[in-house]
Task: structure prediction
Amino acid sequence: MTSLLDAPTAIPPSPASSLRCRNCGAEFPLIAIHACAECFGPLEVAYDPAILGAVTREQIEAGPQNIWRYSALLPVGQDPATRVTLDPGFTPLIRADRLAAELGFTAPVWVKDDSANPTHSFKDRVVSVALTAARGLGFESVACASTGNLANSVAAHAARNGLQATVFIPSDLEPGKIVNSAIYGPRLVAVDGSYDDVNRLTSELQESDDFESTAFVNQNVRPYYAEGSKTLGYEVAEQLGWRLPPQVVIPIASGSLLTKVDKAFSELVKIGLVPESDWKVFGAQSAGCSPVATAFDNGHDVVQPVKPTGIAKSLNIGNPADGPYALDAVRRTGGAIASVTDDEIREGIALLARTTGVFAETAGGVTVAVLKKLVESGQIDRNAETVVLNTGEGLKTIDALSVSWTHRIDPSLKSAREAGLVS
Amino acid sequence: MTSLLDAPTAIPPSPASSLRCRNCGAEFPLIAIHACAECFGPLEVAYDPAILGAVTREQIEAGPQNIWRYSALLPVGQDPATRVTLDPGFTPLIRADRLAAELGFTAPVWVKDDSANPTHSFKDRVVSVALTAARGLGFESVACASTGNLANSVAAHAARNGLQATVFIPSDLEPGKIVNSAIYGPRLVAVDGSYDDVNRLTSELQESDDFESTAFVNQNVRPYYAEGSKTLGYEVAEQLGWRLPPQVVIPIASGSLLTKVDKAFSELVKIGLVPESDWKVFGAQSAGCSPVATAFDNGHDVVQPVKPTGIAKSLNIGNPADGPYALDAVRRTGGAIASVTDDEIREGIALLARTTGVFAETAGGVTVAVLKKLVESGQIDRNAETVVLNTGEGLKTIDALSVSWTHRIDPSLKSAREAGLVS
Result:
């Protein structure tokens, strides 16, 4: 303990005060550790309440149109010169009146479209924060274990910023996600196994001398990385005119995103940037990988690992690190968690596309399909304003779909006539 | 003529004053025609110079973070309630220092990344303007002939805004572009022929009774549609701090985008929003479809149609409507036009990706490869600031690439060791 507390911190002055264990509350300095030295629990960034409390709406609104407008609420990146980033964030919050009508809502439904980020998923938020922290902490190269989107984002960030990257993915990922990492020129390591296997391997690799100076964005700098997801919650509140939505639907892979959006909402209330109001957090999983939904259904606090299957590959984490914390946030706020089949996922993608013009990847299809399911079961209230997160881009998972043209003709009026396009 | 001049105009008050023939200068009211009734020349929107001259930087900067901040310089959309849009534009202008270094530039190089638009190409700009005009003119449904990106954008705009869309594409398009239209639920008509064949067919169809109330965005409302591309030029100038870049490299399909960026620069000087300065416009085509580059090389004013081949499908227009005007803009400003092979296009995509983190579709690869070629030939000056337009998204054309992982291993340290990842 003493050695850790005495270790130098390379993070520049920020509102972050320490790393705090989520289990036992032990505190550690802002260094590159992610597990508690006392109890092995996960560490989270803690902030100086006095510094957070001084942040104003005006200060944020005067910032750039990206995640760094919230740098006063993040552990790193206060000085623009320190950022290792693609400047993600401030993605559109789209009012989805046609979707709301189709689902029978009387209240507004909004789609927060994170496919508008630079590499077209919410992962750009966490990677920008992780790599900024990594540089501050003196790491020389970057790596990750990924279900695809994280790999795309790490490889692109490394390319823009001239860093060496090593990216580990399951070898059965969608071609779009493989190409969209390879094109940036990282060491791209395809592992014949599940994401959980990849994750275990990289946990071992980071202990080796060869990776001593490598930041594994979702492992040895995970506490910083995870904070990036808070910006999604901040943006929803700001874009609604500085208030919280009564209901929000969020996909669950590791569970980190869900817990961080909930944390962002709590912080905004605590520091007075939004009026106090109740919100319910709803979680979305696929039937092929529903360990958190299953624990929710069974009233368990512990998440039983599963072997993932199905088309929602970016959510296929069978042993979700933040599963218990996601369960807690959902239960505490009075929400629910549900899972949907591959066919329902495809229908969710199509429903969102034809009512909003947003083309989501399979994870977004999961979220929309769960919205539909929970509306139909009455667990989501049609009379309460609802925000749905689309975390990724449909172009990355076209293999999961089977849609094509409605007519095929020759370039002639005769052929157009035979096809019924013209009389 | 009299009947046309007397026709009612449904466009709300705007700085646009008339449609003017680019060939003979004849003027027409702001209705749905695209060819001159006198000489069959193409029509372009003309503006009231007094209204344009009153526009200020402050007025623009106070607008939304999308194309509509320039509505005072566009024919339609002044009243937000009239817009039929996905709110595209204000995409990133990325300083590309690593690309500049690799090409030996001493001056800054910038990438204007229009893959950040809602459907990930610059076409969202023209479609938003076209459909806003179409609604103003009383059309009830929308259609287009497309090489892919336009189809994606029209289908998505129609979905968000609840319009019926009919989209015509060549049947040999990339799967990404076909799925990304089909998912929005339009009538998607695959035509066994080239884009030029599709274009001829839709020209005939729009004369039929069945399509009487249909706006073909790039045909019967083309003069409005084309104006949307001006916003790309406005944004580059504003993002550079209200000044023009000395050199800009633009892909040529129909040639419309290039001519409109040049028009935008001219307008900004004329109305005093930027200081007067010289700029050179460079055009980029693929070797598989280089009718404008060929005319440039041969010193011709007329563009000889070709039968397109090659991977840059979004640029595969063999008979480019605005080819002569693109030639004129390039020659007048002292630029050049070049073409590049499919292998050079692939290298251009990789070069851009590994130096900037931007993953461009084949059209962007064409532009970067032409930049490289013209730098090496000395026609582009390494000592002059240069902007390169990336008009579309790499995820739409992954079939053209053959990149994959660099290592494939089992999930074990032993396997990682054998692959040389760890010692």
Residues 1-12 of chain B have pLDDT under 50 and may be disordered.
